Each structure stands twice: as C-alpha cells, then as structure tokens.
Amino acid sequence: MKIVSRNEELLRDALSRIPQSSSRTSLSSYNKLIRFEDISAAAFKIQCGVQKTPCMYSRLSKQYGMDIYLKKEFLQYTGSVKERGVLYLLTSLPQDQQRKGVIVALDSNFSMAVAYHASELRIPVFVIMSTSTSPARVKMCREYGAMVISYGTTAKDSQMHARRLAQENGYLYLEEEDSAVYLSGLGTVGLEVYEQVPKLDAVIFPAGGHCGLLAGSAAALKHLNPHISVIGVESESFPVLQQSLKAGHPLEDQACSNHHFYGDVSGLCFGSNSLQLTGKLVEKVVAVREEDILISMLRLLEYERVTVDAEGAIGLAALVAGKLPELKGKRVAVVICSGNLELHLLQQCIARALTLDNRVCRFSLVLSDCPGDISKLLEILAREEARVLDIKQERTFVTSELFTVEVTCTMETRDKIHTAQLRNALLERYPTAAWMER
Q: Which top-rank group of organisms is this from (predicted)?
C-alpha cells in the first residue's frame, strides 16, 4: 500500500503534551504529538515482527443485515493486538536501555507481548507476577523467554516490586499507557483495515479504559478517509471511557472489576492523550451488557471457529445487541483484538451463553414411580427433537405424595422457538411441570 504522508491539523489539535505523573515514569520521554507519519513509520518498522492479520468476510453478515469483515488480530503470536504497540515501543528504545533490559508487572496481554518481543530482540526482560496468577500464564511467559518472578499476593504488590527492581538495576519499567510511540504501533491496525476492505463505512473497536487501539487506529483511518465512522465499544458495567469523555479527563477513581473475564475492558482510563484523540475523532462509544459479550463469543465460536475473550468479542457484541442500527446495509469491519480466554473460563462462558441464547433450558416435574413413566417422558422429548444433556431423579427429598419421583431435565434446543415448542408440549402432557427461567 502506498501511503501519502501529510500533517493533519485535526490530529495536532487533538493531542497536547501531557505531563506524566510520578507513577508513570516509564515512557514519558517518548510522548509527543501523534502524526500520521508516525503511524506509517511504525507500520514499516514492525512489518517483519508482527502478522499482517486477515480481515475476512464473515458468515454472520446475513444474520445481522450488513457486510461484516472481521480483522483477526487474535492470530498474533501472543494472541493479542498489543504486540503492535509493544514491538514499535521496544525497537524505539535507546540501545543502552535495550542492553540494560525492561521489566513489567501484571498478568495482561501487554506483559505477554513485552515478554515475547523483548526476548526476540534479545532485550533482557523480567516479568513480575503475583502468586495468584494462573500457572498456565506463568508457564507461557517463561516459554516466551522472560525471567518470571512471583511476588506478592496482589497486582499492586507486583507493580511496587517491579518499580523497585527497575530503580535498583537500571531496568526500564514498562506499563501500558498512551505514549505516541505505543499509539502509533497500535494505529497500524487502522492502516491494514483500510487497505484490506475497500469502500468501508465503519470500523468497530474495543474501548474501555485502555482505548489506545481505538485512538491510534482512528487517527490513521480519519487521515485516509474522514467519512469512515469509527466506533468504540465498552462494557456497560464499566463505562470508563464514556464517563471520562463526559468529564473531559481520565477518571482514575473508577471502581473496576479485577475478574479475568473482563481483562482490559474494565481497566482504568490511563491517559489524556488517547482520551482527547478519541473525543476528537471517534463518532460514537457504546456500551454493551455482559450477556451480549457472552453471546458474541458464542457466535464467533460457531460461525468463525474462533475462541476469543471478552476484549476480543466486545466489538461484535454491539452488533449482537442491536446497538448500531444505523449500520444496517453498510460495510463494517470489526476488530477481534484478543483470543486469550483462560481455559477455566471457557466452559463457563459457553454454557452461560447457550442459556442466554435460549438453547439450553431446564424443567422439573413429578411422576409416579412406576415402570414406564420415565420412558413416556423421554418419548415426548425425542418426538420434539430436543437433546437431553442431563436428567436427575429425586425420590427421598420429595414433598409430594408417596411413591413419586421428581425428575429434573436439562435440555438442548435449536433456538428460542424450539424451546417454546418443547415447553408447550410438556405442559400439555404434564400441566404441573415447573420451567426454570434463566
């Protein structure tokens, strides 16, 4: 792709140099105005170190009445778009600092990207993780080539220890923030989407507190075509970006969840640069429910054979929830930015999503404890073409008359209509059947 460089007054107006607080000393020296030239330079510099991920037409398009293209950033080596910003950041460090090394804390996509790319660049890298971090994450970080140190029981303990080690040994302490270098690396996603999907009407990005991907990519897209709508999506439970935009500054006193399901979606709003850029260039920021995110994860698994986490699914969740009706009939790209769903959450998320999608239901009824009664129930279920996932019988703790059995069935159905048909068939034969609502 040929990139024509020029200065944009819009981008210059959007950002001003913000003095960094003492708690964020890592990247302040790299903070400056973000320009389109910075993003195109980042694209050239990192082209051999990260994947140029596909942006493919999705089978979900017909279901939601628009042409949907999925930018599959979860295909990066560490499963996250954060690699783009991290690689450009690391290659931009002075050589003496590269020799001394870098240090990060926390169990996050950013830390994993630093661990991998610093090792690939032969930069000494240390990762401080709390003792509550999952063993799988610790193992993966070590396999990337980082020196992993377990310290403290909380994320705050790990961060304090990392800062202390950095000060004592000359390491550069890195944490995710909105320096121009990092934003420029993330903004390369916007360049690729523009190149891969002609005649785009809109691009949807995950937002939340860490809105660097949204801000950097918006700068690239708006430079290339000001008519493309750029939309951010965050969690309804943690509308950090919307509230920060309304206040006009980052709100760092937000109560955020530390549940691994949400990841960066629920993080604090970390910088004024990306916040101002978002306010200037992004048309809309919408919020979605947890239920919408789960169903979005289910849709991606079924239609795209992709397992993503909440951050990866939240962009599509806005379409699932019907939050963007103005995009009907349009050509829309959705950035699927992360696929690092922890294994212990995978089964819970899919089971819950199937229930929310009215494809798993449960009922209970009381039968006489006579031969053949259970068989008659199973015949009805078979006739309705419903799949029995689980069936339990309770004889001892039954409050009804003697010689009866309480039967509880968990069923899988095709969709909401099929569930209603099954319910009507059961109530016709067993009027006292109790249907357990989700």
A: Eukaryota
